[in-house]
Task: inverse folding
C-alpha cells in the first residue's frame, strides 16, 4: 500500500462511497419491504371471500342440540367446584357414508362408545370414565325428537337409549345414574372417526398379544402398529379378539386408542400445515354433533383451546365399576358402593379412591 492511499482525502472518499452504498441498500430494503407488505395485503383481501366460505362450510357442518330445551329442568345442579364434564359418544349408525365401512347391517344407531370426560378446575388433567354399552340402567322419561314422550323404564341396555330417543336422552340417563351434570356433549359417527384418523396420517398403538377378530376384521401381531382409519375403527370395535369376547374387553382398547389419538393430534404441527388443518376440521365437523353451547366453530375452537393444558399422556382412564347381572349373565349392572363413590368424587372434583376403580366383572 502506498502513502497516497492513506491520505485523509482518500479515506474521506472511501467513507462517502460506503455511505452512498449504504443509503442505496437501505432504500432498496425499504422498497422490498413495501412490496412484501402490499403483496400480503392483496393476498388477505383476495382470500377474504374464500376464508369466509371455508369458515361457513365448517361452521355449517356442525349439528347442535339444545340440551336445556330437550331435557328440561330435571337435571343435577351445577356445582361451583365440579370442573367441566363432557359426555363423548361414538354412534354406530350404518347410514350414509357409514354404510361402506364394513361395520355390518344394523338398523338405526346406538351409542357404541360412551365416555364421561371430567376436567377438574384448572384444566391441566382429565379423567375418562367409560360406561359399558351392555350396562342395564334405569332410563328416565324423555322427549323424543318428534315431540312424543318416551316413558321411564328399568333394566334397559344403556346403548339402546340413543336409538330410542336420541343423544339428549343419553345425556339425561347419564345425569340420572351419576348425579353429575354434563356441561357439554360431543358425538362422532363411524365415518367421522375414520376420516379424522386418516386426516392426521394414522395413529400408533402397541399390543402385547396378537389380536385376530374376523368380525371386526382386525388382524394385528404383537408389537407397535400405525393404524389407518379403517384399521382404527376395527381396533376400537373389536370384542372377540380380546378378554372374554364381551363389551368389557374392548373398553381397554378404546381408552388406549383415545389417548394415542389425542396425543397424536396434540403433537401435530397444524399451524405449519393449513391444508392438513382444514382437512382435519372438515372431516371432524362433518360428522360431529354437539350441544348448542359449543355448536359453532368459534365456540368449539374456544373450548378446545381452554383444554390445551391437558396432557393426554397423564389422562386417567377408568371403566365404570360393574358386576355381572344376576338374572342375565350377558349383561352388567353398576357395582355398589364403587360406582356411587366414583360419581361422588367427580361431583366434588375430588381424587377418585382406588377402591372405586375396581370392577367385580373381570371380562376386560
Result:
Amino acid at each position: 500500500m502506498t502513502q497516497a492511499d492513506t491520505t485523509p482525502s482518500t479515506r474521506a472518499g472511501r467513507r462517502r462511497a460506503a455511505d452512498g452504498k449504504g443509503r442505496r441498500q437501505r432504500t432498496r430494503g425499504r422498497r422490498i419491504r413495501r412490496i412484501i407488505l402490499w403483496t400480503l395485503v392483496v393476498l388477505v383481501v383476495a382470500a377474504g371471500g374464500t376464508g369466509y366460505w371455508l369458515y361457513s362450510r365448517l361452521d355449517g357442518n356442525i349439528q347442535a342440540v339444545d340440551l336445556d330445551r330437550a331435557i328440561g329442568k330435571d337435571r343435577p345442579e351445577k356445582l361451583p367446584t365440579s370442573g367441566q364434564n363432557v359426555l363423548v359418544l361414538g354412534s354406530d349408525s350404518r347410514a350414509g357414508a357409514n354404510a361402506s365401512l364394513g361395520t355390518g347391517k344394523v338398523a338405526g344407531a346406538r351409542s357404541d362408545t360412551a365416555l364421561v370426560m371430567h376436567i377438574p378446575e384448572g384444566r391441566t388433567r382429565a379423567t375418562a370414565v367409560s360406561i359399558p354399552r351392555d350396562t342395564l340402567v334405569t332410563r328416565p322419561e324423555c322427549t323424543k325428537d318428534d315431540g312424543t314422550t318416551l316413558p321411564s323404564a328399568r333394566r334397559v341396555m344403556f346403548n339402546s337409549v340413543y336409538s330410542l330417543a336420541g343423544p339428549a336422552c343419553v345425556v339425561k340417563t347419564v345425569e340420572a345414574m351419576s348425579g353429575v351434570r354434563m356441561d357439554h356433549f360431543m358425538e362422532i359417527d363411524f365415518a367421522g372417526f375414520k376420516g379424522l384418523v386418516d386426516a392426521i396420517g394414522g395413529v400408533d398403538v402397541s399390543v402385547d398379544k396378537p389380536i385376530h377378530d374376523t368380525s371386526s376384521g382386525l388382524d394385528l401381531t404383537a408389537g407397535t402398529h400405525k393404524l389407518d382409519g379403517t384399521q382404527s375403527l376395527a381396533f376400537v370395535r373389536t370384542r372377540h379378539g380380546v378378554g372374554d369376547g364381551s363389551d368389557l374387553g374392548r373398553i381397554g382398547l378404546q381408552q388406549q386408542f383415545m389417548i394415542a389419538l389425542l396425543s397424536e393430534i396434540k403433537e401435530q404441527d397444524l399451524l405449519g400445515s393449513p391444508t392438513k388443518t382444514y382437512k382435519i376440521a372438515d372431516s371432524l365437523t362433518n360428522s360431529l354433533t354437539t350441544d348448542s353451547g359449543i355448536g359453532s366453530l368459534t365456540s368449539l375452537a374456544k373450548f378446545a383451546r381452554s383444554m390445551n393444558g391437558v396432557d393426554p399422556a397423564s389422562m386417567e382412564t377408568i371403566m365404570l365399576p360393574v358386576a355381572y347381572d344376576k338374572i342375565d349373565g350377558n349383561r352388567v349392572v353398576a357395582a355398589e358402593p364403587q360406582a356411587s363413590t366414583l360419581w361422588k368424587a367427580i361431583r366434588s372434583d375430588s381424587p377418585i379412591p382406588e377402591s372405586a376403580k375396581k370392577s367385580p366383572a373381570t371380562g376386560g
Remarks:
- The longest strand covers residues 111-119.
- The chain has a mean pLDDT of 81.
